[in-house]
Request: fold
Amino acid sequence: MLESFQKSLTWVHTWFGLVLGFVLMSVFFFGSLSVFDREIDRWAIPETRFGPQPLPSYDRVLAPIFARIKPDADELAMGEARVGKPLPAGLPLKSWSVYTTHRDPVLTLWGEFAIDNPNAPEDHVHGHITIDPRSGAALPGDPLAIGSRFFYPMHFSLHLRWLSLGYWIVGLAALSMLVALVSGVVIHRKLFRELFTFRPQKNLQRSSLDLHNLTGVVALPFHFMFALTGMIIFAEIYLPLSETTFKPFHDAHERAEAAAKNLPLKPAGVAAPLASVDAMVDEAKRRWAARDMPGEVGWLIVEHAGDANAYVAVYRAGSDRVSLVGQQIYFEGTTGKVLYEAPPPSAIASISHWLTGLHLQHFRHWLLRWLYVLGGLSGCVCIATGLVFFVNKRKRRHAEEGIAGARWADALAVTAVLGPLTAALAMLVANRVLPGALPDRGEWQERTFWAAWLVSFLHAAWRSAPAQQARLAPAWREQCWGVVLLAAAAVIANWISTGDHLLRTVSARYWPVAGFDLALSCTALIAGAAALRLGRNERRQSAGVERDDALQDDDGALEAVHG
Amino acid sequence: MITQHPSRLHITSRVAASLLGSYAFVWGFVSLVSASSLWAGVPYDDAMQLSSWLGMLLFVASVCGAFTVTSLARVWAVLAGGGALMTGAAWLLLRGLS
Reply:
């Protein structure tokens, strides 16, 4: 588009990076939080602060609880909206399922109920009960699991359900990340040198570009693999061939597969009791061990429960490897006889399991888990410094020409970088201070999250005005102080409301809560240090000591090339 | 070759080509690779997965290419035209298969 290959790619890097950077920041930030989603759940639901539990006996503990599951009220409301009329009471049961990992103390049991929708034959609604597996008692009040049910879906859907818009925006952001990485490498070409270059004492522009290059290059394989595997995981949403041009082939393949597995696709309509599921679980474990892959059950499904055509699928938990292999075994519900055992995966399927497993990390490996967090946060630093660089490069020129572009880019950068942090922290504080008996307590926490983000935007729009005069926007410093206050408040509120202060949780080695409180404390310290430094720079700037866009050093030429 | 700043219309058209044009191109490519794989006897899931991985990588290259190829007309012709051609070829292959 421009006069050279390199300049054209610089344009792409700059503008795709800016526009999608605002979204990418949230994807990386909430993705990093999702690595420890279960641990955040423990922090947010104090009554579940105990060690991970094995799957209890189906026959004795789970079966009677499954029988109690009714469709959830919000699921019923959404189902009625899809069908366009009230749903009858006593919807027919489709399936029961339960899913657990090596990090779950509590267990959620799910039920699927068929609804009569002429436009979607497989349409259904869900119901669930969360239990303490040690006693089988239901967790009262169905508290919101902030980590796994709010931050995690935020990471891949932005909670924008309408037309799956969130998935598409996140997919476009992932595509832009890959484009930014490729174009970034082409722009610089001095990758090795950038691994070792960070000059924090130079001017803001120089240090932010150093840090942008450093985090981009050091974690390049991580960023590349995560953006790519993220797109691959949702490939069927982005390229719905199986639902459109390939539908006849897809359906024929599904029928052939079902015929090969010998699984009944439809209920018989005749009631029949289920054989011992515990015996099926034992048999599945025996067969996995015989394949030299002994393991625990991660996912268990009872299809057509209570019907003569019932069958049970038992999946292996993926705690011991990157690759997300199910190794599922299917049993006939009424007899417990093995119907089908998944064969060893094909070469393509093995790669697919590995790529998916790499992104979804079901494995038990705490060091690797922390490296994921560091990789994700380095992505956040890379995006944030890119946004800062964009603004500072244009601030003076825009100020002289009377253009407001840089100022609004700065305001949006504050909203994109500090907004998610502010919103997440405000939500955690709300989680600890809202009264326990408040109806819709989960919804109030979600409202706090969005309201705090809105406040972050309004504040950034107001307090970025000095950027119009080519000065540092006070919004950055003030929101850093906001982060300090909220992070400290979250730790203290956890202490007051549960008695679990850091001394207690660390000495008890209860890492889910101790680790999260430590992470919150570090957040407060880092934000405080950043706020102090920003304040110093603002004072120096008003004293006229330093022009923050001074590019008179010998690397000015390199920067001139960049955006 | 453009030597001065490109016009607003030119930039809009470039961005549209890089995203919509690339999407059409990738759709056609993935359709054609999947259909040819099915034709060659590759199992359904393998065919669809392999083609979509290649498609995602192609998407990245195509977005970059849409900005680096000098002639915008050629970008649109290759992406939209190529996408339509490959989608058509895939459709013919699938018709022969069913």
